[in-house]
Amino acid sequence: MTLLAIETSCDETSVAVVQAGCVRANVVSSQIALHAEYGGVVPELAARAHLQNLPPLARTALREAGISAAALDAVAATRGPGLPNALMVGLKAAQGLAFALRKPFIGIHHHEAHLYSPWIRGNPPVADFAAFEPNVSLIVSGGHTLLVHVEAELKHRVLGSTLDDAAGECFDKTGKLLGLPYPAGPDMDRLAEAGNPAAFAFPRPLLHEPNDDFSFSGLKTAVRYFLRDHPQVPQDPAQRRDLCASVQAAIVDVLVGKTLRAARRIGVRCVTASGGVTCNRALRRDLAAACARAGLTLRLAERALCTDNAAMIGILAERKLRAGHPATDYDADIEPGWPMA
Ligand code: KG4
Ligand code: ZN
């Protein structure tokens, strides 16, 4: 089966061509530069950029894959959750293409697709479903923080999610307080590498609560008060690095602690992680160390597949169609607030 997939739920426009579990092309156009001057994603600008980017990206993806549109067996797109106007562009383009080709269309849940991105490996990237084992999956990005029990392929149960800010949002907002440009996560990571994570004590929200939920807005507020009381800290390069390392340690401790506790409680032998924040080096290191101590296998999404991409949408879409999952109507609407079933 050869399938074209489109992802436009937030600020990355992406088109992939997937064939028999192999990612033949996965082109991504990030809009970071477009939104940076506003300090965050501007939904209307995102939608317009998707509209401009999509046709050339689709042509590039098909050319890279060496496949003509007429040879496609199906078309997929992210149907939700995400920014309404942004989702609309990718969904309607995909439905239009599928309708014109008289091929099935399938709408995909963005977070469900994240669950399978850690299983996509290699060059060219291939979905290694033969190695699949039940797992607890951490999805951490600018828009979402979720802990999910993936009981079997295509079968999952949400354990917890963030009650307020997402982990990436916490990196971005605390970094902004330090004067770092949007999105601040990568800069926080870079500065934190040379800082002391124990220099300043910040709260680890909900770390010891008996649930799988997260909350990061209190941490952001703690950083704001800290900076009000210690205005000299960001002025000194060494203390600035210590501050980044200390904030990062608070976020990472919570993510790692709660993920490992859920995995142990449920009794899975595998932990997976994906989403933009999974690029964070401290998170990757600490998750690896904690999983090794607990005797758990860790599968982190490859860096290129951590952030939003159409490859994960295509891989899940193909898996679903192969499993007999019904196609989605050509005129099905977007689902901006689609809960994870
Ligand atoms: O998956 P993604 O591209 O999706 C969203 O747009 O939500 O994730 C972007 C998020 C941003 O919040 C960004 O600051 C964060 O991932 N991020 C990082 C790192 N790289 C990206 N956060 C911490 N450390 C990083 N190295
Ligand atoms: Zn995402």
Q: Could you name the CATH class of the largest domain?
A: Alpha Beta
Ligands, ions, cofactors:
5'-O-[(R)-(carboxyoxy)(hydroxy)phosphoryl]adenosine, zinc ion
- Overall geometric form: globular
Figure out the total of helices. Answer: 11
In CATH terms, the superfamily of the largest domain is ATPase, nucleotide binding domain
* Main beta sheet strand tally, sense and closure: 5 strands, mixed
User: What's the average pLDDT?
Assistant: 97
Distance between the termini: 26 Å
SSE order = EEEHHEHEHEEEEEHHHHEHEHH
| Rg from alpha-carbon coordinates | 20 Å
CATH topology of the largest domain: Nucleotidyltransferase, domain 5
In total, the number of strands is 12
Main structural class: alpha/beta
The domain tally reads 2
Characterise this structure.
By secondary structure, the protein is an alpha/beta fold. The protein has two domains: 2-125 and 305-322, ATPase, nucleotide binding domain (Nucleotidyltransferase, domain 5, 2-Layer Sandwich), CATH 3.30.420; 133-301, Nucleotidyltransferase, domain 5. Helices cover 43% and strands 20% of the residues. It has helices at residues 32-36, 43-65, 84-101, 110-116, 167-177, 185-193, 217-229, 237-266, 281-294, 303-306, 310-322, and strands at residues 2-7, 12-19, 22-30, 74-80, 105-109, 120-121, 126-127, 135-140, 145-152, 155-161, 270-274, 297-300. A five-stranded mixed β-sheet has the order 3-2-1-4-5, sandwiched between helices. Strand 4, helix 3 (84-101) and strand 5 (105-109) form a beta-alpha-beta unit. The longest helix has 30 residues, at 237-266. The chain starts with a strand and ends in a 19-residue tail after the last helix. The model has no long low-confidence stretch (mean pLDDT 97). Zinc ion is lined by residues 110, 114, 141, 275, 308.
